[in-house]
Amino acid sequence: MPENRFSEFSVLLQAQRKQLLGEVRDKIAALGEQLGAANQSKITNDEGLADAAAEVEVAMAVRESQELQEIEAALARIDNGSYGSCADCGDEIGQARLKANPAAKRCLPCQEQYERAQGQIHLTGS
Ligand SMILES: [Zn+2]
Question: Which pTM was predicted?
Answer without folding.
Answer: 0.70
